[in-house]
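Blinded run. Sample ID left blank on purpose so nobody reads anything into the name before looking at the predicted structure. Input follows.
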Amino acid sequence: MASLQALTALGAREAAVITHGPLTITERFDVALASVAARRGRMADLAKAAKKAGLPLPDAARHEGGTPYSAFWTAPEMWLVEAPFASHELIADMLKAALGDAASVTEQTDAWVALDLAAPDLSPLLERLCNVDFPGVPAGYATRTMVEHLGCYLIKLGQGAVRLYGPRSSAKSLVHALETAAHSVW
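Blinded prediction complete.
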């Protein structure tokens, strides 16, 4: 019988932590992820079920933290929902049970790489990588943007903290772009 072991998006058994000057890039494989979309005409039902389940449904361009669920807006009546992987490995099944037929839910955990970026000020790095006016947006801002040639979600957690979701299949390319930009800044 085969002995399989899970690997992170960067191909290791442990999450990568990369530092360059003041920048720390931390690979997060402890986050479960699912998409939630209201079915046509069912937004009121979804809002009611989400409230009962403790699932935030933030407004456009916003991220809202919570326990156990956090979420960020991706499109009208659509969100990506985060939860701890250890307790929510089957996040899509849990959300389907909680939201019923008011929403369409799909598993997203293995489609994305989650990277937490930390530095005293990420503005000089991000201005080289994407078109987000990082200093001008508030904490809790969430958007889809391009980093190099990759479609990514960027969540501003603070002036020195960002969570970046990129395509898992391009995880190494995304980290390479971050490291290259960091070399030009620091």
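Unblinding after everyone has recorded impressions. Residues 171-185 form the longest helix (15 residues).
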